[in-house]
Amino acid sequence: MSRTKFAITPGFEIGGTLFKPEQLAVLGSIVGEDARIELTTFKQLYVELEEDQLEEVKQKLRETGLEIHPAGFFTKSLIACNFCRGAEDAGLDVAKALGDAIAGYEVPSPLKIGYAGCALGTSEPLLKDIGVVKMKDKYDIYVGGEGKSLKATVGVLFMSGLAAEQLIPVILQLIKLFQQNGRKKEKFSKFIERMTMEKLREAVS
């Protein structure tokens, strides 16, 4: 029998992206002994199980408040800070809306998007493919960060001073450009180098 894999995340709350004990208890009770659960670097759990269990398991997990996302070459759920200054100051509502908007798009290689509610950047947005940093009541976007290799690089400032309502459309345009112009298995940082920052800004502006 074939097996399939999907990702789960608890979404956002004040205090961070946290799995609740009851959610983990349900997960452990329904996936079965043969399932495999993997912790990823982007705050998701990958669950691999028999395909005939898939829909029933997903439904029960959703009932606990967990979010279900595809695994593999897709945009990942938003990697956000712990909102230590509270929802209003750190932009929790904006982060929630952004997370809902960006997760699950098929792309040439996995795309990680980070969000920080202040310049402390505790979610390390500048090491993500696309990083958002809230600066007072405006937002800056960085692109091309890479934290996994021996030649780690910091993202480059792409746009600054965006209003909240401008943020999601710009991020979605970046994702669309990557979908349309990226090569198979090409990292987002390499895509930017090939396309050039100037052409990327022209395409999004």
What is the element string, with H for helices and E for strands?
EHEEHEEHHEEEEHHH
Individual helix count: 7
Measured as a percent range, the helix fraction is 25-40%
Question: Strand portion, in percent?
Answer: 15-25%
Cα gyration radius (Å): 17 Å
What is the fourth-level CATH superfamily of the largest domain? Sulfite Reductase Hemoprotein, domain 1
Which strand order does the major sheet show?
5-6-7-8-9
| Main sheet record | 5 strands, mixed
What CATH architecture label of the largest domain applies?
2-Layer Sandwich
Q: Note poorly predicted spans.
A: none
**Count of structural domains:** 2
Structural class: alpha+beta
CATH fold group of the largest domain: Sulfite Reductase Hemoprotein, domain 1
CATH top level of the largest domain? Alpha Beta
Mean pLDDT: 90
Task: Give the CA-based shape.
Answer: globular
Number of strands: 9
Spatial separation of the terminal alpha carbons: 49 Å
Protein name: Nitrite reductase
Pfam families: NIR_SIR
InterPro entries: NO2/SO3_Rdtase_4Fe4S_dom, NO2/SO3_Rdtase_4Fe4S_prot, NO2/SO3_Rdtase_4Fe4S_sf
Keywords: Iron, Iron-sulfur, Metal-binding
